[in-house]
Design brief:
Number of helices: 4
Shape: globular
Strand order of the largest sheet: 1-2-3
Number of strands: 3
Structural class: alpha/beta
Order of helices and strands: HHEHEHE
Length: about 120
Amino acid sequence: SRLKQSLYSPYWLARGSASELLAKLEAAQVPIWMCVGAAETLAGEVLDFAEKLRKRLPLEVWLHDAVFHVWVMYDSGHPFPSRDAAMRNLLDFIRRTAERPACLDRGIHYFVDEW
């Protein structure tokens, strides 16, 4: 099944099922930015990946409280602070990775909207 292939699921990459691919990623040290909503199904898989590989790969992960899958692309015409923060973080990540040396904010970060 494709769901168990590391190219399609970081869950399996984090478990060493594609050691050759993981070795290439480690050697390249390509910065990885991930952003996930705490209420979406993939949150556990993303956090598991980040936790298992954060000492091996340059990861910057953002967990946003109480938001759903693909919320970053959602446009309701109303203020959406979590979406705006995610977009700012992504653009800032791109800018920082272009610097030499790249300046990453490694680790798992949390964003909680003020109500």
